[in-house]
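User: Quick one: structure for sequence A, then sequence B.

Assistant: Sequence A:
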Amino acid sequence: MSKVDELVINYAIYEDAVEYLGTTEVTLPDLEYMTEELSGAGIAGKIEEIIIGHLNAMSTTFNFRTVTAAAVKLMEPRVHRIDLRVAQQRMNLRTSANEVSGVKYIMKVKPKKTALGKVAAASTADVSGEYAVSYYAMYLDGSKVTEIDPLNFVCIINGKDYLKDVRKALGK
């Protein structure tokens, strides 16, 4: 059955899965593999090869309209466990009906930078925080499809653990 992904209906963001954090927008981390350029005998030129399961540092950004208790709390220099729940809309092409699918992101973050924005009459302050991400997982409709945990040598993409053999070789 064909479906067309349309848009994000809305989202909610929590710390420790219970404390609601009001934000206006979240920029999710880029998942970028580490690479190495290879050249030499048997290679006609140079190629860039990814290093299995190894990603560059990840970061995420949360934007707030004003200075809030949540924005201040997220400045605490410690690990914050973030639970971001998203309702997405898609169209069922067979029935033309709109459907809702759920996406959940779990991240462990530490604050890198907080921009306290501006102060002007009758306007938003545009406060934002940038956070280093040490753990990232994504669930589609309740099924874990991605888990990136560099400290525990876990790199699961689409249900496959790409560092399983590496952990075995290292005796982990």
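Sequence B:
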Amino acid sequence: MKKLNPLDNDLPILNEAIVNWFVKGIDPEETIFECTELIKFQKIVKISNKYDYARYGLKRMNEKVFRVFASVDQNDKELKKVKSGTSEKIQYVPDICFIVNEDISDMKIPKKLDYWWYLDLANERIDAFIGERVKPG
């Protein structure tokens, strides 16, 4: 498990959910849905110099680093990287996301955050460690 620091705080809710599952037996759904800190849901996306720019929906983005969050709002878009006019999907970036590049340390979690996207990813990673789990019920 990768140790996180404030400069590379990438999907910390996943690490927390996975550790809680293995160490404390806490279901990932509980860890994810009870979290109240938006910063724990951020995915840090860095567009390398191999790419010309990033595109959010149809909008060209000038930044090279983004703080991305999974969204249930159908008005939100997908962030892609573009090279020579061709866009590419960015690994572990949700198809629908919102971007908040300002300070979020005191920001409340918006209603549009897609908790289920994070839960699915946490479950995928746990299953990759142990193989398929038997779901309770």
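The first strand starts at residue 43 and ends at 46. The chain has a mean pLDDT of 90.

User: Thanks, that's what I needed.
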